[in-house]
Each structure stands twice: as structure tokens, then as C-alpha cells.
């Protein structure tokens, strides 16, 4: 199960000369795109199972309902009454079978049990092999986020350099915007590492 870099739309082509205002907008767009890559990582890691019950684990499981594929969180409430138990309360009883099927067929190795409109999902402790596999997935997803962030930085720097070569900004402004983009990159990258450390800690808990 290999993670792919988070795909984000590129910078819009510039149809008019660059001014400082354009570069400020570009810098803001780069920051926004990096933040989206970070959020994509957070969502992806929420679905990586640890040995403890966490409602986020099930939230984005896809369920066939109402003629389309929906996130489980849009069809049910998910609670963790115990450290190793999740309880899914499906709002529409007609979706219970589909929800149970999706839970059972997910990559999380779960064994749900239905009681009325409640589905109890025990969260077994991880074997050492499974733990290593989950840590590997965490690293793959983190690397995909890093790749996306580096690509966004590279595109922003290239646009700044082009503006300076076209004599649309002075060299001092070029270096100033370089520093600002790098500062944003470093900040988002630190957040990536912090998220990974937290997830690794969760996975190490027995």
C-alpha cells in the first residue's frame, strides 16, 4: 500500500507583469497549498489503526449509500466508550448492512458486530508485525506530504526568480520573498514531523 504525493493544482499562469502584490498573492497561495498537504496528511494518518479506539479511525471509511460513496461520518455517529471499543450508531437503519460491509472489508482488519442500529467494533491490540506495517505506512504518507511541500516551494521560488529576471522586481525583493517562502516551508515541515512523532508514539503503545 504505497502512498502517493498529494496532488494539488499548480500556480495560475500570470497574464500581466509581476508586481509586489502578485508575489504576495503567490506566497499566500503557496502557504495555503502547503497547509492543504498537511491537512491531507492528518486525515490520512487518522485512518492508520493503532491499538487504541479512536473515532477518527472510521470517519473516512467509504460506504455505498443513497447511490453514491459516502464517508461513514456522514452516515453515523462514532464514539469510543472504551479504550478498545468503537460504537457506530447508524442514523438510517437502511444503511446498516452497507456500513457493516464497509467496516468488515476495510484494510483495518476489523470484526464488527451489529446490534439493532448499533455496530460495535472491537479494536484488537496490534501484533508486532502489524505495528511495523502501520509505521511503514505512516512514513510513506509523511514522505508523500514532504514531496508535495517541496514541489510547492520549488514552484513558488521559480516564479519569484522569473519575476526578477524580467526586471519586474529588484534583487532585494527576490531574496526577501525567497526567505518568506522558505520560512513557511520550514514551519509546515516541522508540523509534518510533529504529526509523525505523535502517530509513532500512538503505535508504540501496547
Keywords, separated by commas or semicolons:
single chain, 206 residues, alpha+beta, four-stranded antiparallel β-sheet, two-stranded antiparallel sheet, 6 strands, 55% helix, disordered N terminus
Describe the structure.
The chain is of the alpha+beta class and 206 residues long. Helices cover 55% and strands 14% of the residues. It has five helices and six strands. It has helices at 20-46, 56-59, 96-105, 128-165, 171-204, and strands at 62-65, 68-71, 76-82, 85-90, 113-115, 118-122. It has a four-stranded antiparallel beta sheet with strand order 3-4-6-5. A two-stranded antiparallel sheet has the order 1-2. β5 and β6 form a beta hairpin. The longest helix is centred in the last third of the chain and has 38 residues, at 128-165. Residues 1-18 have low confidence and may be disordered.
Compact summary:
The chain is of the alpha+beta class. 55% of the residues lie in helices and 14% in strands.
SSE topology:
Elements (H helix, E strand, L loop, with lengths): L19 H27 L9 H4 L2 E4 L2 E4 L4 E7 L2 E6 L5 H10 L7 E3 L2 E5 L5 H38 L5 H34 L2
Antiparallel strand pairs: 1-2, 3-4, 4-6, 5-6
Number of helices: 5
Strands in their spatial order, largest beta sheet: 3-4-6-5
> What is the β-strand count?
6
Kindly report the average pLDDT value: 87
Helix/strand-derived category reads alpha+beta
Strand fraction equals 5-15%
| Amino-to-carboxy terminus distance | 24 Å
Provide the helix percentage.
40-55%
Low-pLDDT residue intervals, each spanning 5 or more residues: 1-18
Amino acid at each position: 500500500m504505497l502512498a502517493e504525493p498529494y496532488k494539488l493544482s499548480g500556480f495560475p499562469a500570470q497574464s500581466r507583469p509581476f508586481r509586489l502584490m502578485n508575489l504576495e498573492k503567490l506566497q499566500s497561495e503557496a502557504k495555503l497549498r502547503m497547509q492543504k498537504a498537511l491537512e491531507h496528511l492528518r486525515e490520512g494518518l487518522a485512518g492508520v489503526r493503532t491499538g487504541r479506539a479512536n473515532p477518527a479511525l472510521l470517519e473516512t471509511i467509504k460506504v455505498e449509500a443513497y447511490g453514491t460513496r459516502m464517508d461513514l461520518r456522514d452516515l453515523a455517529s462514532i464514539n469510543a466508550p472504551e479504550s478498545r471499543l468503537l460504537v457506530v450508531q447508524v442514523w438510517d437503519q437502511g444503511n446498516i448492512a452497507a456500513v457493516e460491509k464497509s467496516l468488515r472489508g476495510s484494510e483495518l482488519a476489523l470484526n464488527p458486530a451489529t446490534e439493532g442500529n448499533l455496530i460495535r467494533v472491537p479494536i484488537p491490540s496490534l501484533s508486532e508485525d502489524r505495528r511495523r506495517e502501520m509505521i511503514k505506512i505512516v512514513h510513506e504518507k509523511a514522505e508523500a506530504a514532504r514531496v508535495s511541500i517541496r514541489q510547492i516551494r520549488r514552484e513558488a521560488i521559480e516564479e519569484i526568480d522569473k519575476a526578477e529576471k524580467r526586471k519586474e522586481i529588484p534583487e532585494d525583493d527576490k531574496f526577501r520573498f525567497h526567505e518568506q517562502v522558505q520560512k513557511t516551508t520550514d514551519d509546515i515541515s516541522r508540523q509534518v514531523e510533529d504529526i509523525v512523532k505523535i502517530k509513532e508514539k500512538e503505535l508504540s503503545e501496547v
